[in-house]
């Protein structure tokens, strides 16, 4: 089954918000309906690509293409979809995310061999062994991409300070920040990924944001809902 072409910007499709509607589309996809499968991939592609970019080892940029990682994950999902439907271990999006994370971890091992990992920058969490978010990617995302020469030096200095601060964070707090703020997972989804209660995940997210607010000045306060 071919992966769909150009993907629409991230957004939830109303027709799939309902659990029964999603189940129907999944069953059609498992039966070989390419249009249904493409619809499912379009729904989740933006979030999955953002996850790959956030967790791709910076040393492998230019050598590992996120699109190739997702293509392999989609093929895995297509093959495994019938067994998934018999006994879903996770909500569909989180299952796709785990498959994509597993493929990314394999790409890391393939390109890095037995090179020792810096656990301060990359921590595998969860049963799927999904690589942790890169502190460099988190810092870059928090500061943006300022191009004006007058502000470039100050922005680079802030990125360095943020990266150092993120490296010192508790790994789970760092993951909550990545999941909620960057991957845009709901609090319930983030809790499921990390094996926490929703209340614990919410508390950790708020704590991680507040620890960085002073460095970022005007970054909005964390929201516990979701």
Overview of the structural elements:
- The protein has 2 domains: 14-112, Rna Polymerase Sigma Factor, Chain: A; 135-216, Winged helix-like DNA-binding domain superfamily/Winged helix DNA-binding domain (Arc Repressor Mutant, subunit A, Orthogonal Bundle), CATH 1.10.10.10.
- 64% of the residues lie in helices and 0% in strands.
- The chain is built from 9 helices and no strands.
- α2 crosses α3 (66-86), α3 (66-86) packs across α4 (92-112) and α7 (171-182) packs across α9.
- The relative contact order is 0.10.
Write a concise keyword list for the protein shown above.
226 residues, mainly alpha, Rna Polymerase Sigma Factor, Chain: A, Arc Repressor Mutant, subunit A, 2 domains, 0% strand, globular
SSE blueprint and pairings:
Blueprint: H1 19-30, H2 34-55, H3 66-86, H4 92-112, H5 135-143, H6 149-168, H7 171-182, H8 187-194, H9 198-216
Helix pairs in contact: 1-2, 1-3, 2-3, 2-4, 3-4, 5-6, 7-8, 7-9, 8-9
Q: Which homologous superfamily in CATH is the superfamily of the largest domain?
A: RNA polymerase sigma factor, region 2, helix turn helix motif
Which H/E pattern describes the elements?
A: HHHHHHHHH
The average pLDDT value, as a whole number, equals: 79
| The CATH class of the largest domain | Mainly Alpha
Intertermini distance: 34 Å
CATH topology of the largest domain: Rna Polymerase Sigma Factor, Chain: A
Oligomeric state of the chains present here: single chain
What class would the helix/strand composition place it in? mainly alpha
């Amino acid at each position: 089954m071919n992966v769909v072409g150009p993907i629409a910007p991230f957004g939830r499709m109303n027709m799939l918000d309902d659990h029964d509607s999603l189940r129907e589309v999944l069953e059609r996809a498992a039966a070989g309906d390419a249009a249904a499968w493409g619809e499912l991939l379009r729904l989740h592609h933006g979030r999955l690509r953002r996850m790959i970019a956030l967790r791709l080892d910076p040393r492998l940029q230019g050598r590992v293409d996120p699109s190739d990682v997702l293509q392999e994950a989609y093929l895995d999902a297509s093959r495994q979809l019938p067994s998934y439907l018999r006994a879903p271990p996770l909500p569909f999006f989180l299952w796709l995310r785990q498959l994509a994370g597993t493929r990314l971890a394999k790409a890391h091992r393939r390109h890095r061999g037995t090179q020792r990992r810096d656990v301060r920058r990359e921590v595998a969490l969860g049963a799927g062994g999904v690589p942790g978010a890169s502190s460099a990617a988190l810092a870059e995302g928090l500061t943006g991409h300022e191009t004006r020469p007058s502000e470039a030096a100050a922005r680079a200095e802030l990125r360095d300070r943020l990266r150092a601060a993120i490296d010192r964070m508790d790994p789970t707090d760092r993951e909550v920040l990545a999941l909620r703020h960057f991957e845009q997972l709901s609090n319930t989804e983030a809790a499921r990924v990390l094996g926490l209660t929703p209340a614990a995940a919410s508390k950790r997210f708020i704590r991680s944001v507040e620890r960085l607010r002073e460095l970022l000045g005007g970054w909005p306060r964390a929201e516990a809902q979701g």
